[in-house]
Amino acid sequence: MTSGTPELSRSSCKVAALAGGVGGARLAGGLAQVLQPENLTVIVNTGDDFEHLGLKICPDLDTVCYTLAGLANPVTGWGRSGDTWQALETLSRLGGPSWFRLGDHDLGLHLERTRRLRAGETLSQVTRHFCQSFGIQAQVLPMSDDLVATWVHSDAGTLAFQDYFVRRKCQPRVSGFFFEGAENAQPAPGVLEAVAGADLVVLCPSNPWVSLDPILAVPGVRAAVQRRPCVGVSPIIGGKTIKGPAAKMFTELGLESSALSVASHYQDLLMGFVIDQTDQALSGAIAALGMAVCATDTIMNTPQKRAWLAKEVIEFSLALVGKPSSTQTAEEENRSAAKHR
Ligand code: GDP
Ligand code: CA
Question: Which of 69, 98, 276, 284 pairs with 126 at a CA distance of 20 to 30 A?
Answer without folding.
Answer: 98
